[in-house]
Amino acid sequence: MAGINNRVKSTNDLELKDRLVAINRVTKVTKGGRTFSFAAIVVVGNEDGIIGWGLGKASEVTTAISKGTEAAKKNLLRIPVYKGTIPHEQSAKFGGAEVLLKPASHGTGVKAGGAMRAVLESVGITDVLAKSKGSSNPHNLVKATIAALNEMRSPLMVARNRNISVEKVFKG
What does the alpha-carbon distance between residue 64 and residue 115 come to, in Å, rounded to a whole number? Predict the structure, then answer.
């Protein structure tokens, strides 16, 4: 597992930007009628390799978003971004959502939709090809995308694991 030590220790010096991925109105039927509440999934990132996601639930939309943002700041991950794209192809699955991420050449842009786009832009990836297979549920898509990004290995990490220089990683 490559993503074991990717946790970010301190959030004090980071300038994180939050993005609302999805908001869902939830209804609870009680004896007195219907009670409405909101669930918001939020992604935060510094657009330089740090990402986190959170889920906030509250009776008001703004409170749900702020709770989601606070939850996202508590589980930040460091993702290797190599020249604005990802180091290698990676796929991951969470629930019914399956994602496939491929590196792209400079100038391609973020070819992804919806929830995946918010995650990839928040982490700072500018060129990537992404495909969502299976469920389009935003909660599961965010989790699958972050799982795929968390499995990424930087060239430096590969070189250390193989006990070779970084130049040999690209040659062989």
Answer: 18
Q: State how far the alpha carbon of 158 is from the alpha carbons of 3, 47, 166, in Å.
A: 13, 23, 8
Give this prediction's pTM: 0.86
For residue 139, what is the enclosing H or E element? helix 138-150
Q: Which SS3 state, helix, strand or coil, does residue 120 take?
A: helix
Token pair belonging to 142: 């965010």
105 CB-side CA count, 13 A? 0
Q: For helices 138-150 and 114-123, what crossing angle results, to 10°? A: 40
- Asked whether 76 and 43 are in contact (CB, 8 A), the reply is no
**What pLDDT digit, counting tens, does each position of 31-65 carry?**
999 999 999 999 999 988 899 999 999 999 999 99
Q: How far is residue 148's CA from residue 14's CA, in Å, rounded to a whole number?
A: 23
Residues sharing a CB contact under 8 Å with residue 32, sequence separation 6 or more, in sequence order? none
Distance CA 80, CA 141 (A): 20
Per-residue tokens: 98: 């399956």
Which residue reads 């989790």 in tokens? 143
